[in-house]
Design a protein that fits this description.
By secondary structure, the protein is mainly alpha-helical. It has helices spanning 3-15, 29-35, 41-53, 76-125, 135-146; strands at residues 57-60, 64-67. The relative contact order is 0.09.
Length: 147
């Protein structure tokens, strides 16, 4: 999950309604970035913008960011935990897919290299050795014979 979404989820699920009430002003972007391990300002800004899009915050440029609504609680506690678990599983799946994709790409590159080396060896082993310029015509002839 992108870092800005993690920050937005933390603000929404833990801090709104406990640390900040409706009408409260949030710390500035610089302070929020510092509170979240000195993330980039754009990361903190994106988190706040996401919550504003969800109508939980109101951004007043030059004035501050204010809590306009609280996330629904009640039975949402287990739902919030389920959302976090779902997000974590999605991230784990994304990581696994990226890892497998990298492995497949490595295997394809290795197989391509091995095939080219074997083909070069075969060409050199021909009696007489085939000139590399003649290979395309030889491949066309070979394909025509198989058809």
């Amino acid at each position: 999950m992108p870092k800005y979404r993690e920050i937005a989820a933390d603000l929404r699920d833990r801090r709104l309604g406990t640390e900040f009430a409706v009408g409260d002003r949030l710390p500035g972007i610089t302070e929020l970035a510092r509170q979240y391990d000195d993330v980039a300002l754009n990361t903190a800004r994106n988190a706040v913008t996401l919550l504003a899009e969800q109508q939980l915050l109101r951004i007043e440029h030059g004035v501050g960011t204010f809590v306009t609504a609280l996330p629904e609680r009640g039975p949402a506690g287990p739902l919030a935990e389920l959302r976090r678990s779902h997000d974590a599983l999605g991230q784990a799946l994304d990581d696994a897919v990226a890892h497998v994709s990298a492995q497949v790409a490595d295997e394809v590159a290795r197989a391509r290299h091995d095939t080219l080396v074997a083909a070069a060896d075969d060409l050199e082993a021909m009696d007489p050795p085939m000139d590399i310029a003649a290979v395309p015509a030889w491949l066309r002839e070979r394909a025509a014979r198989r058809a």
